[in-house]
Known about the structure:
It is a single chain. By secondary structure, this protein is α/β, with parallel strands linked by helices. It has a single domain (52-255), classed as P-loop containing nucleotide triphosphate hydrolases (Rossmann fold), CATH 3.40.50. The chain is 24% helix and 16% strand. The chain contains 8 helices and 11 strands. The protein has a 5-stranded parallel beta sheet with strand order 2-5-10-1-11. The chain has a two-stranded antiparallel sheet with strand order 3-4. It is globular, with a radius of gyration of 23 Å. 24% of the residues are buried.
Amino acid sequence: MTTTEPGTGHRPAMPDGTWRLFRGDGDSREVAFPPAPPWRRFDPEEPLPHHPAARPLPYLITSDEVDIVNAALHLRRPLLVTGHPGTGKSSLAHAIAHELTLGRVLRWPVNSRSTLQDALYQYDAVGRLREANLRRDSDDREPGIGQYVRLGALGNALVPREQPRVLLIDELDKGDVDLPNDLLTVFEEGEFTIPELTRLSEDHAPVHVQTDDPDTPAAVLRGRVRCREFPIVVITSNGERDFPPAFLRRCVRLDLPEPTRL
């Protein structure tokens, strides 16, 4: 059996002429690891290895499927991608972000406990109270409330920007049956409010909150987050159950077939 580096057509050479790092002979030895494939290289200064720039390979898609994707882009509607595992549903979001140079894909993996609230933002009230108690007898200034508010993937996607972000809502069919309908208002209005910050509405200064992007806070004014450009939303489903008709009407639907053997 011969093994080649994907995209290079040759086996990684080792100092002794073999590509095998592990030999199964029970002997201990120091080995020099070859360079990792481009899509498996991790930079300690960049904690997000799934940046689209690391996905240069073309996405295998038909012309008709490309037209469906573009319809969703032009209509500013969520793209609902249905298919069995392994058909490339999630990879499509990364392919779109890579081709359109829209940065890192924001990902919301859905499970049976997922809620809309978690996808929009989290407020650490307990942490804020604990910090206030610790600083009660201290002259240190308490951090602002923005330190205890963190936007989730969906909330971050709705932050106003000149260019839209790509949001991957992965396996929505694994979530609660009411979750698709919960998303409708956000999808239609392109905004949401953070009640904990709305109470500070008399203060006209924006509050800088944490986001799904590390070390990239967002300014929120009067507790309201409203997008400038609606995000490119890719929703994946394994087809395990049907979605409500009202939800389906607001999506552009793409069904991916089973991959065929070449």
